[in-house]
Amino acid sequence: MRIARFSIDGNVAFGAVEGDPAGPDGPGGTGGTEGLVLDIIKGVPFADFELSGTKVPLDKVRLLPPVLPSKVVAIGRNYAEHAAELDHEVPAAPWAFFKPSTSVIGPGDPIVYPSFSQEVHHEAELAVVIGRLCREVPRERVKDVVLGYTCANDVTARDAQRTEKQWARAKGFDSSCPLGPWIETGLDLAAASDLAITATVNGELRQAGRTGQMINSIEDLIVNITEAMTLLPGDVVLTGTPAGVGPLLPGDEVAVTIEGIGTLTNKVISRG
Question: How far apart are CA 192 and CA 261, in angstroms?
C-alpha cells in the first residue's frame, strides 16, 4: 500500500493511493497524478485503520510531507563512492546526525536557497519511516518497527559543511529535507535493500546507484540508532546517498526517483 498525507479544502488527512502501478502515471511510475485516486483513511497509519471508501482524485489535492517526524536521523558517508568523491574517509560505524522537523517539506514544495550558502547540493536518499515506538531494537525485529519507505533529498549547504565543525546549519536549514511523495508499505527489508535510486536536475541525470551499495544496511542503522535513542512513530531515518551529488541553483528542478516507490520533485528558489 502507498500512503499519502494530503490537504483538501483546508483539511489534512491520510489516504491510500490507488491506480495502475504499471502505468507511467501510476504509483510505480515517474509521471504525474492523472488517474490516481486517494481512498481516505479513517485514523492514522501508525495504528489499525480502515479505508473509508471516500475517494478523491490525487490531482485535486495538495500532497504534503508523508509524515511530520519528531526527528530525522540521517546517516553520513554510507556509500563508499560518495565518501570518496568528497575526499572523506569511510567511518568505522554509522555516522549519524540530525535534521530538525522544520527542515521537512513535501513534494512540490520549494527548496529555499539559504542566505549563508553559495553552494547547495542535492543528495538522493532512501528514507525509512518508523511505524511504532521503539528502543534497543534487535536485528530480527527491525522489520516490525518499519512502516515503510519514501524518497528523500538530504539537501546540503556544502560550503558550510566544509567550514563548520558540525553540520547543524549545513544540513538542517529550513526546506533542506524534502520527503515524499508517499510511503510505500509493500516493500520488505530484502526488497528495500536493493532498489535503484537516481537524482536528476532539470532532467539531467546526476546520481544513479542502488541501495545495495550501502555500507551499513537498514538493519545495521536501526539497531545502531536505537541503542542510543527512542524512535517514535513517524520518525525518519535517512540512509545515505550514492555518488554523484552536485550543485543546485535557484530555478533548478530536482527529482529523486526510487524504484518501487516513486518520484519526489522540488524546485529551488531564492530566499525573499
Answer: 10
Do 43 and 87 sit in the same domain of this protein?
no
Q: In terms of domains, do 244 and 154 share one?
A: yes
Domain count, the chain: 2
The full 3-state SS of 9-48, as one line of letters, equals CCEEEEEEEECCCCCCCCCCCCCCCCCCEEEEEECCCCCC
When comparing pLDDT for 103 and 19, which is higher? Answer: 103
Pick the closest to residue 264 from 64, 68, 87, 61 (CA basis).
64
| C-alpha grid cell, residue 201 | 536536475
Q: What is the DSSP letter of 211?
A: G
- pTM, two decimals, is 0.94
Q: Read off φ and ψ for residue 170, nearest 5 degrees.
A: -65, -35
Cα dihedral 208, 209, 215, 218, rounded to 10, equals: 110
Dig out the grid coordinates for 86 from the structure. Answer: 568528497
Tell me the pLDDT tens digit for each residue of 125-175: 999 999 999 999 999 999 999 999 999 999 999 999 999 989 999 999 999
